[in-house]
Write a structure and sequence with these properties.
Pfam families: EF-G_D2, GTP_EFTU, GTP_EFTU_D2, IF-2, IF2_N. By secondary structure, the chain is an alpha+beta fold. The chain is built from 20 helices and 36 strands. The strands form nine sheets. The chain has an eight-stranded antiparallel beta sheet, with helices on one face. The chain has a six-stranded mixed beta sheet with strand order 9-10-8-11-12-13, sandwiched between helices. A hairpin with a 2-residue loop joins strand 9 and strand 10. Bound molecules: guanosine-5'-triphosphate. Guanosine-5'-triphosphate (GTP) binds next to helix 10. Guanosine-5'-triphosphate binds next to helix 10.
Length: about 675
């Protein structure tokens, strides 16, 4: 017997395959997709059944100007190319027709009564007739409401509120390539402390920006733009990779180009290396500004050599990294730097559609006593205008006024441009997106939904990678790369560890060492891990107190080891899903060594002050000097005044001795911990 494809039948019936599948869902046909096929007989039967359903429906709604079915029919009978117009017409019909009422997925009985122009008690009576017990303040679903509405001679249309709100999540919506226009690059300046980040930003501003106009606002707004010939370059005003990465950890990637400032008299330093890792992790191209070339001790070639050692091969040495010698003090090299920024931007083909509802990112926000919530927005797509209804996180409102980076009032701004907006209901979060909504209802709905989402998110934890659940995530295809940050006490062990870990690549998961350096685990390492969904491995080093707190908040998995082999074994087992039940440590607290005393027997006792948590007699102690682990061992004595004690709490002093260790020094940090067996 001839077979008919579902989509063919749908076409014959003037409906979409989806609609047809839905309609015959209850009948006993084996149909799952538009490509399923059915016998000709079955197709005939379906046609008959649908016809019948259609007739019933028409009869039921006789006497009404327009029923849902009529409206649909109207639409279906139009040519495909007219469909869009038809939708508009239908919308108008719905607006005009007073027999049609529109509701969301649910409605409160009282509201339904209002819409139907009847008493709530009449609705309640009808509901009882349907076997639904509801008082006037209770919600009923749209299906029930439709039956009740029908009884009062009205047709109910369910408006998809969700799609209204989802419309403004238009960020992922691909703009038509023909609507895209070139946009200015957004630049962040990074580098080691005192290498001249702020001076460089100031030098650029001073050479390129004219003074602010009176009457505007004059404070710095977190970003500014400069004109280079007839083009613009936008600089984010908070230098440093910490700000860059904390924005990225919140999901905001607004930087197109990173300027790495390296002082020509100092060279590549730890934070330079960190900045390189941070920019690379974000896949942002780096331009190196070799600063302070006015200094007699400046040595540009040495800097280039050091860049090579860090995988940045200068262009004039045959590589791809653009380097520009500058002096922020003398304002030399600034024009060349700006030209290079434009060149790199050109290669990136930075484009956005200026003719659409704007989407931007909050760069900075604060509460101004006089003006209320103020936020600097970097527009990413579209054009932001005064009077636009905007929403960012749980904050929404109509833009009352806007000021550009020169403090001048503006009416509208396009892609890549920073602008201060007034009119939000509350101070939004830096790093959050800001959307323009079509109307106030959508904006308020969105903000409300965001509030609910936030609550939900607070309840369930975010899914950051951890060794515990790594294998599950690999299996589910959620993770294809395991990003790792390594911190260690000496360079040699860091290199050995990264080499060994790289060899653990499997077909399912690739191991990337996104940053490795010498020193304790810092807040910056944790933020990089958070933004890049990485885990942090410390070898002979520990996180400082700040880092511990941030790791907890950002849910970053930090693992510390004293033996390289154990680190490798853990990662290997995690990749294979065989992380054995393990003994984990629980940190009890930290204490600082404030004084040391030598006993006549040669042993040393440290006078300590417990900073947080507690230190107990049976805890193990890790001795840290600059967050590097110097010694690990047991407590030999714990005393307050002359008495032995079981524990000492935060805020108290005591004397402590360590088993087999006497080289305690003032300023050392003692971390107390216990080992616990946990089930996995
Ligand atoms: N000679 C000379 N000194 C400079 C130059 N650029 C900056 N400096 C000096 O270097 C010091 C540090 O400059 P900043 O701009 O504060 O450096 P930074 O990188 O922003 O420092 P942090 O914000 O503390 O990380 C200041 O004393 C500047 O005056 C330069 O081109 N030449």
């Amino acid at each position: 017997m001839t077979k008919v494809r579902v989509y063919e039948l749908a076409k014959e019936l003037n409906m979409s395959s989806k609609e047809l599948i839905e309609k015959i869902g209850d009948l006993d046909f084996d149909i799952s997709s538009h490509m399923s096929s059915i016998d000709e007989d079955e197709a005939e039967l379906i046609k008959e059944l649908l016809d019948e359903a259609d007739r019933n429906n028409t009869e039921k709604k006789k006497g009404k100007n327009h029923t849902n079915m009529d409206i649909k029919k109207d639409m279906e009978n139009k040519d495909k190319k007219d469909e869009f117009d038809a939708l508009g017409e239908i919308q108008e019909v719905i607006e005009d027709d007073n027999t049609i009422i529109k509701i969301g997925q649910n409605i409160i009985v009282r509201d339904l009564a209002d819409k139907l122009g009847v008493n709530a008690s009449q609705i309640i009576t009808k509901l009882i007739g349907l076997g639904v017990m509801a008082n006037q303040n209770q919600n009923i679903d749209a299906d029930t409401a439709a039956i009740v509405a029908d009884e009062f001679g009205k047709t109910l249309v369910v408006e998809d509120e969700k799609s209204d709100v989802d419309d403004i999540f238009d960020l992922d919506h691909e703009d038509n390539p023909k609507d895209l226009r070139q946009r200015p690059p957004v630049v962040t300046v990074m580098g080691h402390v005192d290498h001249g980040k702020t001076s460089l930003l100031d030098a650029i501003r001073q050479t390129k920006v004219t003074v602010s106009e009176a009457g505007g606002i004059t404070q710095h707004i977190g970003a500014y733009s400069v004109n280079v010939d007839d083009k613009k370059v936008v600089f984010l005003d908070t230098p440093g990779h910490e700000a860059f990465t904390s924005m990225r950890a919140r999901g905001a990637s607004i930087t197109d180009i990173a300027i790495l400032v390296v002082a020509a008299d100092d060279g590549v330093m730890p934070q330079t290396i960190e900045a390189i890792s941070h920019a690379k992790a974000a896949e942002v191209p780096i331009i190196v500004a070799i600063n302070k070339i006015d200094k007699p001790t400046a040595n540009i070639d040495r800097i280039k050599q050091e860049l090579v050692e860090n995988d940045l091969l200068p262009e004039d040495w045959g590589g791809e990294t653009i380097t520009v010698p500058v002096s922020a003090r003398d304002k030399t090299g600034i024009d060349e730097l700006l030209e290079m920024i434009l060149l790199v931007a050109e290669m990136q083909e930075l484009k956005a559609n200026p003719n659409r509802n704007a989407v931007g990112t909050i760069v900075e926000a604060q509460l101004d006593k006089g003006m209320g919530p103020m936020a600097t927005v970097l527009v990413q797509k579209g054009t932001l205008k005064v009077g636009d209804m905007v929403v960012s996180g749980t904050s929404s409102g109509r833009i009352r006024a806007m000021f550009d980076d020169k403090g001048k009032r503006v009416k509208k701004v396009g892609p890549s441009m920073p602008v201060v907006i007034l009119g939000l209901s509350e101070v939004p979060n830096a790093g959050d997106l800001l959307y323009v909504a079509d109307n106030e209802k959508i904006a308020r709905n969105y903000a409300q939904r965001k509030k609910e989402q936030l609550r939900e998110e607070q309840l369930k934890s975010r899914s950051k990678v951890s060794l515990e659940d790594l294998f599950e995530k690999i299996k589910e295809g959620e993770i294809k790369d395991l990003n790792i940050i390594i911190k260690s006490d000496v360079r040699g062990s860091m290199e050995a560890l990264s080499q060994s870990l790289r060899k653990l690549d499997t077909e399912e998961v690739k191991i990337n060492i996104i940053h490795g350096s010498v020193g304790g685990i810092t807040e910056s390492d944790i933020m990089l891990a958070s933004a890049s969904n990485a885990i942090v491995i410390g070898f002979n080093v520990r996180p400082n107190l700040n880092a511990i707190e941030v790791a907890k908040r950002e849910e970053v998995d930090v693992r510390t080891y004293r033996v390289i082999y154990e680190a490798i074994e853990d990662i290997q087992s995690a990749v294979k899903g065989m992380l054995a039940p393990k003994i984990v440590e629980e940190v009890l607290g930290r204490a600082e060594v404030r004084a040391t005393f030598r006993l006549p027997n040669g042993n040393t006792i440290a006078g300590i002050y417990v900073l947080n948590g507690k230190v107990t007699r049976n805890s193990k102690i890790r001795l840290l000097r600059d967050d590097i682990v110097i010694f690990e061992g047991a407590v030999s004595s714990l005393k307050r005044f002359k008495d032995d004690v079981r524990e000492v709490l935060a805020g108290y002093e005591s004397g402590i001795g360590l088993e087999n260790y006497n080289d305690l020094k003032e300023g050392d940090m003692l971390e107390a911990y216990i080992l616990k067996e946990v089930e996995r």
